[in-house]
Amino acid sequence: MIPQISSRGEVAQYRLPWQLVRSVVWDALILRPRSLAHDARQAVVGLSPELKVLGSERIPARGPCLVTCNHYSRPGFGAWWLALAIEAAVAARRAPGADPEIRWVMTAAWTFPESRWRRRILTPATRWAFDRAAQVYGFVTMPPMPPDPSEVEARAVAVRRTVRLARQAAQAGGIVGLAPEGQDVPGRLGQPPRGTGAFIALLVSAGLPVLPVGVTERRGRLSVSFGPLFVPEIPASRIERDLAVAQQVMAAIAQQLP
After folding, report:
1. How many C-beta atoms surround the C-beta of residue 26 within 10 A?
2. Residue 117: how many other CB atoms lie within 10 Å
3. What is the distance between the alpha carbons of residues 87 and 156, in angstroms, rounded to a whole number?
4. Cβ proximity of 102 and 175 under 8 Å
5. Distance (Å, rounded) from C-alpha 238 to C-alpha 206?
6. What whole-number distance in Å separates Cα of residue 119 and Cα of residue 46?
7. pTM, to two decimals
8. What number does CATH give the domain 18-254?
9. Lowest mean pLDDT across 122-131, 138-147, 154-163
10. Going by fewer Cβ within 10 Å, which terminus of the chain is more open, N or C?
């Protein structure tokens, strides 16, 4: 999943409109709710070349689902573009009256194991900023990976909040989104952390079928590819469930990648 250079030898650059950034920052400070669907459309309209969407006919026009995508990354590509690109594609497909908003499960902070000063300064700063973003857009924050033993209770609380969100989405025809890898894995698909498959099984059992999405760059152009909606087989055995569900979901995502 290394970015492909365009025919002119260029690698795509990603810049958010300044007016959008200023508006989001202000609303985050005062905790005024925003629409991710609206902001995503504003963000992707300025992409050059434009966003490429494959398999849009597989996006359910109505009804609930669990969007699962790879955690694509490279220098110069912020992780927020994953959410913006997928949201823009989903919002364009949803029928009038159907909820277009994806409620993402996002990291609670960026961690920097290799840098003490970044851990002391940037990690608390991102924790504050991500919490504000989550409140503004209706997301759920999950303690960052790899797991920290001191955050076991916080992770359990986040899981319970997400399951409640999934049940609400199942009843109202909403959408929940997550990247099973939980962290950047440059250049390849990563192995989801232990417990991810069991977590997804809870959301599926709450009534959300899985919509797999592959995000990458093709010839210098951001591309999102949607796979068929499916319901993973969930083994009765708790031990087998985690690995089996994670493998099914990651295999479905892999099929949408070059």
Report:
1. 10
2. 8
3. 27
4. yes
5. 17
6. 33
7. 0.91
8. 3.40.1130
9. 138-147
10. C
Strands 221-226 and 175-178: unpaired
Cis ω for the linkage preceding 49 (within 30 of 0): yes
CA 231 – CA 15 distance, rounded (Å): 36
In the block, tokens 């990563």 appear at 190
- Asked if 221 and 52 touch (Cβ cutoff 8 Å), the reply is yes
Asked if 192 and 183 count as a contact pair (C-beta separation under 8 A), the reply is no
CB atoms within 10 A of CB 42: 15
CB 140 within 8 A of CB 106: yes
Residue 18 burial by Cβ neighbours in a 10 Å radius (0-12, 13-18, 19+): exposed
At how many degrees (to 10) do helices 36-44 and 80-93 cross? 100
Residue 229 structure tokens: 């909606």
214-258 confidence digits (pLDDT tens): 999 988 899 999 999 999 999 999 889 999 999 999 999 999 998
